[in-house]
Design goal:
Blueprint: H1 11-18, E1 22-29, E2 32-39, H2 41-44, H3 47-60
Antiparallel strand pairs: 1-2
Length: 62
């Protein structure tokens, strides 16, 4: 999600959104509101999250 800014609509992600681990933002473009999602900034600072993100990023570049 951090890489794509898209949230899959499933139970696990909805729980993360409800618990504020994932935040919803809104962009307004030409009068249209487009929601996007990202991991809470404090979670981004957690070492284990950074390690997992690094692994995920390297998998996507292969």
């Amino acid at each position: 999600m951090h890489l794509t800014k898209d949230k899959l609509n499933n139970v696990e992600n909805n729980k993360l959104l409800f618990n504020r681990c994932i935040l919803e933002y809104h962009d307004v473009e030409g009068g249209n509101i487009r929601p996007w999602h990202d991991v809470h900034p404090l979670i981004l600072e957690i070492e284990k999250f950074q390690e997992a993100l690094s692994r995920e990023s390297s998998n996507e570049t292969r």
